Amino acid sequence: MEFLKTCVLRRNACTVVCFWRSKVVQRPSVRRISTTSPRSTVMPAWVIDKYGKNEVLRLTQNVMIPIIRYPNEVIVKVHPASVNPIDVNMRSGYGATALNMERNPLHMKIKGEEFPLTLIRDVSGMVMECGLDVKYFKSLTNPNHSLIYQAASSPYVALTASSAINKVGDLNDKNCTGRHVLILGASGGVGVLLYR
Fold first, then answer.
1. Widest distance between CA atoms in the chain
2. Are 95 and 144 in contact (CB under 8 A)?
3. What would the pLDDT profile of 83-118 be if each residue is shown by its tens digit?
4. One domain for residues 85 and 100
5. What's this model's pTM, rounded to 2 decimal places?
6. 56, 63, 116, 141: which one has the fewest Cβ atoms less than 10 Å from its Cβ?
7. Can you give the three-state secondary structure of 18-87, one letter per residue?
8. Looking at the structure, do residues 144 and 161 belong to the same domain, yes or no?
9. First vs last C-alpha separation in the chain
10. Are 35 and 138 in contact (CB under 8 A)?
């Protein structure tokens, strides 16, 4: 059986992990899932410590940088981010029960452990670290800075527009030839994307 063998090199308080393919048997207690390398452990972020209005927002410089827990995850250093209506509603507690059930399906955590909570979901940036199963991204690839700001505002808007076209409008590439669509209020993000 082929495994990814690791070698840890230590030099001047820095640790480097090297990976290569080898036909060896790993110890069952060791589970390598990422190419984690030494890095800062904290980052700045806007967080909330309880649900409420804008006054609950707090800028902090010491949020723990997440770690890769599964081999299909990536860590992205956020450059721009966009705030969507869902983020504003979540700040007030919208979806808290569903999110907590997803985070804690067996109800084993202590109540209130979801705080501090970072709300923004639409981001764009540089992939800093990849899980071992990630094939489409490479770590530390410099993004195209002219497109990075456009990409930050796209995910929520694009999914909403796609849902409107496909689910509500029942349109797809096979049945929309020769049809006309009226888009009311095409001045916002979703409307502009639908117009295009």
1. 68
2. no
3. 888 888 999 999 888 877 776 666 666 665 778 888
4. yes
5. 0.60
6. 141
7. EEEEECCCCCCCCCCCECCCCCCCEEEEEEECCCCCHHHEEEEEEEECCCCCCCCCEEEEEEEEECCHHH
8. no
9. 50
10. no
- Look at the chain and report how many structural domains it folds into: 2
Q: What range defines the domain where residue 177 resides?
A: 153-196
Q: What is the CATH number of the domain that holds 48?
A: 3.90.180.10
124-181: per-residue pLDDT in tens?
888 888 889 988 877 766 667 667 777 777 777 888 888 888 888 888 888 888 888 8
Cβ proximity of 161 and 192 under 8 Å: no
pLDDT tens digits along 59-69: 999 988 888 88
Q: How confident is the model at residue 17 (pLDDT cuts 50, 70, 90)?
A: very low
